Amino acid sequence: MDNAKTDFFVIKALEDGVNVIGLTRGSDTRFHHAEKLDKDEVMIAQFTEHTSAVKIRGKAIIQTSHGQLDNK
Ligand code: TRP
Question: Cα-flanking dihedrals φ and ψ of residue 29, to 5°?
Answer without folding.
Answer: -95, 110
